[in-house]
Specification:
The structure holds 2 protein chains of 2 kinds. In chain A, the strands form 3 sheets. Chain A has an 8-stranded mixed β-sheet, sandwiched between helices. A 5-stranded parallel β-sheet of chain A has the order 2-1-3-4-5, with helices on both faces. Chain A has 25 helices and 17 strands. Chain A has 3 domains: 66-266, Rossmann fold; 273-419, Rossmann fold (3-Layer(aba) Sandwich), CATH 3.40.50.1000; 461-628, 3-Layer(aba) Sandwich (Aminopeptidase), CATH 3.40.630.30. By secondary structure, chain B is mainly alpha-helical. Chain B has one domain (3-78): ACP-like (Non-ribosomal Peptide Synthetase Peptidyl Carrier Protein, Chain A). Chain B contains 4 helices and no strands. In chain B, α1 packs across α2 (39-53) and α1 (3-18) crosses α4 (68-78). The longest helix of chain B has 16 residues, at 3-18. Classes of the chains: A alpha/beta, B mainly alpha. Chains A and B meet through α3 and α12 of A and α2 and α3 of B.
Amino acid sequence: MSGLYWLPEAADWRDKLRGLGQIAAEPWEEAVALANTRLDFVQTNALDRVVAKLFGGAVPKGLSTKPVRLALLGSSTMAHLHPAIRIAGLRRGLWISIYENDYGQYWQELGDPASGLHQFKPTAILLALDAHHLAAGVGAHLTAADADHLFAETTARIRECWRLARENLRCPVIHQTALPVHAGLLGNNEHRLPGSRRDFIIRLNRELRAMADEAGVDLLALDDRVAADGVKLWHDPVLWHNGKQEISPVAAPLYGDLVGRLIGAKQGRSHKCLVLDLDNTVWGGVVGDDGLAGLILGQGSAAGEAFVAFQEYARDLSRRGVILAVCSKNDEANALEPFEQHPEMVLRRNDIASFVANWNDKPSNLRAIAEELNIGIDSLVFVDDNPFERNLVRENLPTVAVPEVSEDPATYAQTVADAGYFEGVSITEEDRVRSQQYQSNRERDQLKASATDLDFYLRGLEMRLTWRRFDQIGLQRTVQLINKTNQFNLTTRRYSEEDVLALIDDPRAFGLQLRLIDRFGDNGIIGIVIGRMSGDEELAIDTWLMSCRVLGRQVEPTTLNLVAGQAKRLGARRLVGDYLPTKKNGMVREHYPKLGFTLAEAHDDGSSRSVLDLATFVPASTFIEVTEG
Amino acid sequence: MAETDIYASLEPIFHDVFMRDDIKLTPSMTAKDIEGWDSFKQIEIILAVEGQYHIKFNTRELDSLLSVGDLVRVIASKV
């Protein structure tokens, strides 16, 4: 199995591609949809050319994601990889522009402030050093001491590249592990030959894991992909000798997607929720017809074991922070029965954050799930064995990821994994307790339903808002929220890791991360505020965003109390809050007026500026206790 | 497969790669004759041909491809 097999085949590919140039209405959405089909190398390049022509190489207007400027640094031919990286960005709604160093000059350009690399001002660097370059000088003639010496030199040089990238270009580094392309000399026990190029690369890849963690660098683990796909898919010696392409053009679409998902993950744009169909997806058979006893699940048959294995995979995903949901055409009681009574079920009702079983169409139900969980519809991945349902969802909800799974349940887990929907670069404590958080939400809702009076409900929640300045520990989550929050977001300004780091050091600005805890549990980081002094006496609220799942809990006025205090500390007498409208943030149009700000400016484009005089500001009293920590 | 049939089945590949439907292939045609036929496009053509005819060019064959006629001869020798 190779290429982007989880994406559906493009129907009428040629017509759609040629039509794309002529469609004026929503060219970006059309292009994103085409990028989400199973493109090979030639198709990827063709789409890339059409997209370049459509937008004239400029960032499309109204793009809601932060444009990416990727510097691709290496020592082999990589031009054939650019289109695949750009198209993989497009697949995720990202606009990626690419710079590649002059052939073989990556080292010089990193160190030279006048180089094209520095002028390009990258927002991310991908260091893609090829195996032949890395193993230069290694050979069977070496003694063990010589080989060790070369190894130490090579790792030191890589660390130096990372340092230069960080210090001179202030941007995050992705390092590509090396492809094991060298022919072995000794065989099974290759590691006993000190000068083996093959072993040198294997050893380097192993070392890179620890080095990268220590330096805060993310890896593009091509060696891991090669272990799964075979080196023949990734490297073609004929083309290496023909034009020094280390990565075969056949593998380019997959390579691009690996890069795209990593960049997406760093912007917090990975999917969040795995939505499962039930009959013939989670168990074999139809529970409504076959009954509990008739289901194929668990020991006794290969298919039954395969369904259990897929459930285990889903449960492991939830334990690393992916939300699980169910979307099934069934009577609810029938759908719940196996979860409650079947002894072989791995997934339990409590593992499922949103359980929707009814006879409505699946697109409507998926919308309901996203709404219930307060996440974007584009956060969903929907796995269904039924091709009809898959196509219906793709047609109605093009931003929901729907993997083209085969009929064999034994392949489901690998397909979901290969598609890279849930790519993550770190694992936070929040990820580990996420499913618990959704469980708590249900308990909160039950309290709300039973409480007749709102104040009674809020007091009963025993809420505590704890705040911290931006810091390294919370960095990933902060960046994720800044780049992913669309609805409760006053300005929708997107910032990278490096931007946030710069803010930590700025004495005339503050960044706050807000955590809400109540008697049902920890809601995690639910709010971000960035304030900057914009004059001697004025503090501009650059960013104010909040997770929608804590709406209606008095978090907004409590946050304002906190912001006002911070602003006064910096010497401000006024707060200035802007609202910049987007397609998705209409819910906060009246945010500042509701909090007592005075409207100062209102513009035709819907944007507005409001002001709050701190001298006369009286902090609102709420049911939330505020603590630092 | 006869060489004339190969020319007929090869043309759509060129149309897709160059996004032009007016390309007529002749044996003497070389990269100079089609605008934009650079080494990058050469690789696209090779991969598309390999995919369509289920063949694989070896190093010597790649080196021998100087014209459309060369390409057709190599394909004919393999299918």
